[in-house]
Design brief:
The chain has ten helices and ten strands. By secondary structure, it is of the alpha/beta class. A hairpin with a 2-residue loop joins β9 and β10.
Length: about 240
C-alpha cells in the first residue's frame, strides 16, 4: 500500500442514495435562514466546519487508503453535490440533474465546492457552473471532466461495480497517484475553512430579497424532504 501501516480491510466506500431520483437535496436552508435572521454567525461557522471536516476525511481517503466513491444516481443540488465532490471518484447517471442554486439567493456554495471543483476543471468552467445556477446533466459534467464515469439511466450501480473491478487492479498505483496529486494540487483544511469564513460573512450580510428567495428554495426543499414508498416515509439526510 502507498499508505503507512497495514492495509485497511475496507478498500472502497460508496456514497449513494436510497431514494429513487434524488441523490441529495443540499444543506439545511431553513436552519440557515433562522441563523441569518438571528445573526448567529457562530452556528453557521460551526455547521460549515463540521461539513468540511467530514468531506476532507473522505477526500483524504480517511488516512487509510480507503477510496471514496460518489454514485450520483439521482438529482444533486447545492451542498448535496458539494458532498459528492469531496469523494475521490465521481460516477453519475447521464440524465441526473446537478446544480448549485445558491447564486439565485445571492450566495455561493461555501463548503468545499470551489476548492474541489478547481482540482477538476479550468477556472472559467468552475465559475460558470457556480454563477450560472443552471442545472447540468451528468453527461454534461462528464464531458467537462468533472464527473469521472458516466452511466446510463438506471445502470449506476452496475457501472460502479464494473469500474471498481478495473480500479482494483491498479489500486496500489492509484493510491500513490492520489498522494502525488495532493502534493501538486493540495487541498488543505486551512483553504477550506477560509472559504467557509467568506461564506459565513456573505450569509450574515444577506439582504431581505436574498432571504426571500432562499425561503422559496427552502419551502421547495421541504416539500421533497419526504418520499412515500409503499406507505412508508423515508427521511432524506442532507
Amino acid at each position: 500500500t502507498a499508505f503507512p501501516g497495514d492495509p485497511h480491510p475496507i478498500e472502497y466506500v460508496i456514497a449513494a442514495s436510497g431514494i429513487k431520483g434524488i441523490y441529495n437535496l443540499g444543506g439545511d436552508l431553513q436552519n440557515f435562514l433562522q441563523c441569518i435572521r438571528d445573526g448567529n454567525r457562530d452556528f453557521l461557522r460551526s455547521y460549515a466546519y463540521s461539513c468540511l471536516e467530514l468531506g476532507y476525511r473522505c477526500y483524504q481517503q480517511f488516512d487509510r487508503g480507503i477510496t471514496s466513491v460518489a454514485l450520483i444516481d439521482g438529482n444533486a443540488y447545492g451542498g448535496g453535490f458539494e458532498a459528492a465532490l469531496s469523494c475521490n471518484i465521481l460516477i453519475a447517471e447521464e440524465n441526473v440533474e446537478i446544480s448549485f442554486p445558491e447564486i439565485n439567493f445571492n450566495l455561493f456554495p461555501g463548503m468545499g465546492a470551489y476548492s474541489y471543483l478547481a482540482r477538476r476543471a479550468a477556472p472559467h468552467i468552475v465559475e460558470e457552473m457556480i454563477t450560472s445556477g443552471r442545472p447540468y446533466t451528468g453527461r454534461e459534467l462528464f464531458e467537462l471532466g468533472i464527473i469521472d464515469v458516466c452511466a446510463k439511466p438506471g445502470e449506476g450501480h452496475q457501472t460502479t461495480m464494473e469500474f471498481l473491478t478495473r480500479h482494483r487492479r491498479q489500486r496500489h498505483g492509484r493510491l500513490a497517484m492520489h498522494q502525488a496529486k495532493q502534493t501538486v494540487y493540495p487541498v488543505t483544511m486551512q483553504e477550506l475553512m477560509r472559504v467557509a469564513d467568506i461564506w459565513v460573512d456573505a450569509a450574515i450580510d444577506l439582504d431581505q430579497r436574498g432571504m426571500k428567495v432562499m425561503e422559496r428554495f427552502s419551502n421547495a426543499q421541504n416539500k421533497r424532504q419526504y418520499e412515500s414508498d409503499e406507505n412508508k416515509l423515508q427521511f432524506l439526510v442532507a
